[in-house]
Amino acid sequence: PGSPRHTNRLINEKSPYLLQHAHNPVDWYPWGQEAFDKAKKENKLIFLSVGYSTCHWCHVMEEESFKNKEIGEIMNKNFVCIKVDREERPDVDKVYMTFVQATSGGGGWPMSVWLTPDLKPFAGGTYFPPDDRVYRVGFRTVLLRIAEQWNQNKDALLENSQKIMEALQIHARICGQAQESPPPSQEVMAMCFQQLSKSYDEEYGGFSEFPKFPTPVNLNFLFTYWALHRTTPEGARALQMATHTLKMMAYGGIHDHIGQGFHRYSTDQHWHVPHFEKMLYDQGQLATAYTRAFQISGDEFFADVVGDILLYVSRDLSDQAGGFYSAEDADSYPSTTSGEKREGAFCVWTAEEIRALLPEPVEGAAEGTTLADVFMHHYGVKEDGNVSPAKDPHGELKGKNVLIVRSSPALTVARFGLEPGQLDTLLSQGRRRLAAARAQRPRPHLDTKMLASWNGLMISGFAQAGAALAKEEYVCRAARAAHFVRRHLFDATSGRLLRSCYRGRDSAVEQSTVPIQGFLEDYVFVIQALFDLYEASLDQGWLEWALQLQHTQDKLFWDPKGFAYFSSEAGDPSLLLRLKDDQDGAEPSANSVTVMNLLRAASYSGHMEWVEKAGQILAAFSERLLKIPVALPEMARASAAFHHTLKQVVICGDPQGEDTKELLRCVHSVYCPNKVLLLEDGAGGSFLRRRLPFLRALVREAGKATAYVCSGSGCSLPVTAPRELRGLLLG
């Protein structure tokens, strides 16, 4: 209400995170020359604060410190203050996070770093409380101490920052030797499996006690390991670890049973109480992981979860122009009259609310049983709330319930004497009723920034699900998003991707005044998406664009001396380090995914230099792959594809013919990680025919759609029956 008392330069930015801070009493600058020049001219230190719009602790630090007028005055007097959205500028984030992790042993957001006027870091941390606490120094104290140090001890501080920088540059070098060969794949895969097996939680799934993260990279590794060891006990265990984890997550509170989709992570061992933000990159990767679980097991449970994720994204994270938004916040107002946001307020329930919403008696059940009784039993709802105080440090969830499937359908049916099939109807009715009630609550903040990389991950999720579940509408949604990326996140003149665009006024798609150029991860995830979309749609236009982008990626990011790709391009004087990610985390690292991209690109183009590059990346990360492959499960998985050589599955036939469609359905129904799919439709001048001359020799048997499975050494005998093709794919 009323006009804000303060407005700073961030009001001119497009990033939702930066705009959240536009009315702080802090004189914030965006990352850029204006701020750097001011620091040099006034000989002032820089305070750099990095976060993102759905980060809970970023909100806390803003409320406590950045909205505090007195702390704002200390900051403005002594520092040039810069705000960075880590999702817009992952390059800046990674440079200073490398420093914070190296000097403090931990990291996270908000990230708080103090820099010399020439951008060298010398002190840093994450969240600081505003004032001193028993075990924690306060932000006000840190600001005053650092300002005093700069005034009294400038030379020592500058010398120290120079030494830190030199140490970081040595630490950041990941170099392969030109003559080194990639590490033996079998050894890497076996070691990675052992390390995951060791950290696996037998009871609840996942790979740590708590907090528990979805880590799709681990699950995808396990699926590949199973595919290569189907008949061994280790293979069976790998599959069980992955599917059990996916089931426990789907039953857990990390899964939004009312509004669909998955929250970021669980604070406890049981996947029960989450941090409630929802990130696009999780939805994209989990859609793919659940799709693979369905392909392998045929269990409709997994297909239902895929449908649930994609419904959420289509409804809540989709722009009308076709792109995907970045995230939904964890915090929201409990009611329209509340003055303060609370974490999880949009998603949690009191027992009283559920009783009021589901009061009707259940037909055929024991007398007096209401729909609320059945629903509350099934979803673990307790009268006084089901969240342990230990998992609710701020008391925001007291008396509230996070829904979690606590009872198997069979036990719930038996307890209430229900008819078989009745439970699904009752639970579905209950969920719909709660969803309608929830729609009346104030929604969490939506980050409407659209990133090329995360859109790539989501396109892959829709495309792979569409192919494996035979849902044309998912493939169409993936294609619509790819058209969006081409229109709004690609500069056709330079052939380069852009990092981000934004929902602006009247829901128009806008660019920032100076668009941010795409980073390595943007190219890698978009290229992967285009390959996935080609296999799902068989539109060769996506292949052509993917290969063009791969050439651009090589030109901008490849390191010809040390091998592998840098995360950012050369030539930005404000970036003190060019780094190469060596960890598959919440998202797989770009170099890990690009190994598979290069192998696929070579299979579609005959350009064998890309196979060589894939081997050089594996060589560059050789030491890490042999010692702690669990840090790079996606790259370990790709090393198997490199050593086994990809199968080219070629279907010769009319794309509209029923016999062709049958063979394609067969390919899509089998989980075969080390293959690419090509359709040879007989069109003389097609893109694939021009690139791969051997396709001309492959013909239809007796005029019927025919499949060939080819590798470097030649092609299999032709097959026309899906059963025979399935045998070849699994062989």
Automatic annotation (TrEMBL):
Gene3D superfamilies: 1.50.10.10, Glutaredoxin. GO terms for biological process: carbohydrate metabolic process. Transmembrane segments: none annotated. Residues 7-169 form the Spermatogenesis-associated protein 20-like TRX domain. This is SPT20 protein. It comes from Nothoprocta pentlandii. The lineage of its organism: Eukaryota, Metazoa, Chordata, Craniata, Vertebrata. The gene is Spata20.
